[in-house]
Write a structure and sequence with these properties.
Keywords: ATP-binding, Nucleotide-binding. InterPro entries: NFACT-R_2 (IPR059101), Rossmann-like_a/b/a_fold (IPR014729), ThiI_AANH (IPR020536). GO terms for molecular function: ATP binding; CCA tRNA nucleotidyltransferase activity. The chain is 35% helix and 17% strand. With 321 residues, it is of the alpha/beta class. The protein has 2 domains: 184 residues, Rossmann fold (3-Layer(aba) Sandwich); 90 residues, no CATH class. The strands form 2 sheets. The protein has a 6-stranded antiparallel β-sheet.
């Protein structure tokens, strides 16, 4: 077996520690960050920067960014193992990422995969039976090493072959973080990441609207729509339309950049304000949408009447509200 490991890197403390424990045994560690608009998206288009960050901050061999949005949206429609507390398909998500990681092993010259999973830390995906199921579902039995809880789990192939010294692995379990924090101090980590999860699909303020949109679209959601759902003000209008408004100039720019050519956009004609985009469009909702554009423009909301420009297929017209 090759003396190189692929680390499923979440940017959380546990995955960092798992990588450091294996790297300390003189094993090359390649950190792979899988991203979608719901997690890790800040690294989109910054692959070289991520690689540099991984090398300089943690001393790992390399860092890779892999966008799995399209495959992720497919499982999000109807995950085989269901959802967590919000709209998060945790088990199916982990299985997808591990399958993708497995497909990279030969390309990267790696022999096995490591994760920061801790037995009993999360009720849906990190109970012992869930961890075993994940191994079977991904075809990674014997090749999936969880260094923080290894002594509570079956010995893996890299341990049996002496590539990884089992006696240097740990037996952490449960939801506490005392041992992880002590280990971080021992290893000299300069920054301790927050324990909060980084997935927007677990966020009670954002996840319900994403779930509702998936319901309205029967799961047929494009990658650009998924990204737009993660920011801005969203409105489900009375006749069935779905409207997003930018909350600032940066969000306006993102909406404009992400919107397809055949989109219906709204903006005030002569006054600064939000850019509106119909994700689902019904002509009967135009006036209601225009009123919302006015309402959320501080310089327009108190005016008696304003012109709202409707932009569709490179043509413009105005309505007054």
């Amino acid at each position: 077996m090759k003396k190189k490991a692929l680390l499923l890197f979440s940017e959380g403390l546990d995955s960092i520690l798992a990588g450091k424990l294996i790297a300390s045994q003189e094993i090359d560690v390649v950190a792979v960050r899988f991203i979608t608009p719901f997690f890790g998206w800040q690294w989109k288009g910054r692959e070289k920067e991520f690689d540099q960050y991984i090398r300089e901050e943690f001393g790992f061999t390399a860092g890779l960014i892999k966008d799995i949005t399209e495959k992720y949206l497919e499982i999000l429609k109807a995950p085989l193992h269901g959802y967590g507390s919000q709209f998060n398909p945790c088990l199916d998500c982990k299985i997808l990422m591990l399958k993708e990681a497995k497909s990279l092993l030969d390309e990267l010259g790696a022999g096995f995969i490591i994760t920061g999973e801790v037995v009993g830390q999360r009720p849906m995906s990190q109970l012992k039976h869930s961890l075993r199921h994940i191994e079977k579902a991904t075809g990674l039995e014997g090749l999936l090493l969880r260094p923080l809880s290894a002594l509570k789990l079956k010995e893996t192939l890299p341990e049996k072959q002496g590539i990884v010294k089992r006696e240097k692995l740990l037996d952490i379990s449960g939801r506490g973080r005392k041992r992880q924090l002590a280990l971080a101090k021992e290893l000299g980590l300069r920054k301790i990441p927050s324990p909060a999860g980084g997935c927007l699909l677990t966020d009670p303020a954002i996840a319900p609207r994403i779930k509702r949109y998936f319901e309205l679209k029967d799961g047929k959601v494009a990658p650009w729509e998924a990204e737009v759902l993660t920011f801005g003000r969203h409105f489900e209008l009375s006749k069935g339309s779905w409207l997003i408004l930018g909350r600032n100039a940066e969000e306006n720019e993102k909406i404009f950049r992400l919107s397809p050519k055949d989109s219906v956009l709204l903006k005030l004609s002569d006054i600064p304000g939000p850019l509106g985009l119909f994700l689902i469009f019904r002509e009967e909702d135009l006036e209601e949408a225009a009123k919302l554009v006015k309402k959320y423009a501080p310089k327009a909301r108190n005016l008696e009447k304003v012109a709202v420009k409707i932009i569709f297929d490179e043509k413009e017209r105005e309505i007054y509200v």
